[in-house]
Amino acid sequence: MIKRKLVGAHYGFGDWLLQRGTALVMALYATLILVIMAVVQPSTYLEWRGIFDNRVMAFLTFIYLVALFWHAWIGVRDIWLDYVKNTGVRLLLLMATLAVTIGYTGWAVQILWRV
Amino acid sequence: MADTAIRTKKRPKNLDIMSIRLPLPGVLSIIHRLTGAALFILLPVFLWLFERSLATPETFAEVKALGNHLIVRLILLGFIWFYIQHFLTGLRYLLIDLHKGVELEAARFSTKVVFAASTTLMLVIGAFIL
């Protein structure tokens, strides 16, 4: 009989790869935003706002933030799996972390494409 | 089974954390985890500041005025340190994933490179911010 735990790190490879992929996305965005900041050197509200009012830039920033949230979810999940042994508490913490990261994604949409 | 045999076998254990000396790459590893956790905790603060900075000219001015306080600039510097440290440590892990610098000596050396790079960057950024 196959014995499977309800929660446990038995589904790791996809997440391992995603952890690297999202890291790469964030590194590329970091390079881009540093170049933009160096070129534009925003000091007023309009200059600052202008960077993210650009639709391409809003889109790329959103991709960055989703990569960040996903990366954070995998990382924080690993921390819970390493240190929290009680299944109930672990499940609660995993759910809370997932809920928060999904909530942040909605928040990011609101920030970048506010009506 | 093999699994339980390992578990029942008595092996010497040393869990006295004060007498264990963590090797340098191990220190880097735990710093990667700690800075990652700290960045996760700070995430809502960062999102909130980002939102306020984009919302209206007034809220933008508020966020900008926060930078007038030395304590805020110090916290910002701490946040930047977490980010840079986590970033560089992560780059090292990406290289190790590609089997670059896996050997003991190389792994130790790259750890020192990461610490040196993050310290240098922090000094430069610190000179700008403070």
Automatic annotation (TrEMBL), chain A:
Which cofactors are named for this entry? heme
Please give the biological process terms from Gene Ontology that the record holds: cytochrome complex assembly; tricarboxylic acid cycle
Where does it primarily localize? membrane
User: Which residues of this UniProt protein bind heme?
Assistant: H71
- Which GO MF terms are attached to this record? electron transfer activity; heme binding; metal ion binding
- Name the UniProt key words of this record, in alphabetical order: Cell inner membrane, Cell membrane, Electron transport, Heme, Iron, Membrane, Metal-binding, Transmembrane, Transmembrane helix, Transport, Tricarboxylic acid cycle
Compartments it resides in? Cell inner membrane
Which Gene3D superfamilies does the entry link to? Fumarate reductase/succinate dehydrogenase, transmembrane subunit
Q: So where does this one cross the membrane?
A: 21-40, 56-76, 88-113
InterPro entries, A to Z? SQR/QFR_C/D, Succ_DH_anchor, SuccDH_FuR_B_TM-su
GO CC, alphabetical: plasma membrane
Instruction: Give the membrane topology.
Output: Multi-pass membrane protein
* Positions of a ubiquinone binding: Y83
Pathway listed for it is:
Carbohydrate metabolism; tricarboxylic acid cycle
- What does the UniProt cofactor note say? The heme is bound between the two transmembrane subunits.
The lineage's top-level taxon is Bacteria
Q: Which Pfam families match?
A: Sdh_cyt
The name this protein carries in UniProt is: Succinate dehydrogenase hydrophobic membrane anchor subunit
Q: Which organism is it from?
A: Rhodocyclus tenuis (Rhodospirillum tenue)
UniProtKB/TrEMBL annotation, chain B:
In the record's cofactor note, how is the cofactor described as bound? The heme is bound between the two transmembrane subunits.
> What does the entry list under GO cellular component?
membrane
Q: Which InterPro entries does its entry note?
A: SQR/QFR_C/D, Succ_DH_cytb556, SuccDH_FuR_B_TM-su
Q: Which coenzymes or cofactors are required?
A: heme
**Which NCBIfam families does the entry link to?**
succ_dehyd_cytB
The record's comment on protein family reads: Belongs to the cytochrome b560 family.
Q: Give the record's keywords alphabetically.
A: Heme, Iron, Membrane, Metal-binding, Transmembrane, Transmembrane helix
Q: How does it assemble?
A: Part of an enzyme complex containing four subunits: a flavoprotein, an iron-sulfur protein, plus two membrane-anchoring proteins, SdhC and SdhD. The complex can form homotrimers.
Which residues participate in heme binding?
A: H86
**What is this protein's function?**
Membrane-anchoring subunit of succinate dehydrogenase (SDH).
Q: Which Pfam families match?
A: Sdh_cyt
Query: What superkingdom heads the lineage?
Result: Bacteria
Q: Which GO terms describe its biological process?
A: tricarboxylic acid cycle
Compartmental location: Membrane
Molecular function in Gene Ontology: electron transfer activity; metal ion binding
Q: What is its main location?
A: membrane
- Which SUPFAM superfamilies would you find in this protein's record? Fumarate reductase respiratory complex transmembrane subunits
Please indicate if the UniProt record lists Membrane as a keyword: yes
Q: What residue ranges are annotated as transmembrane?
A: 21-50, 70-88, 109-129
Q: What's the name of the protein? A: Succinate dehydrogenase cytochrome b556 subunit
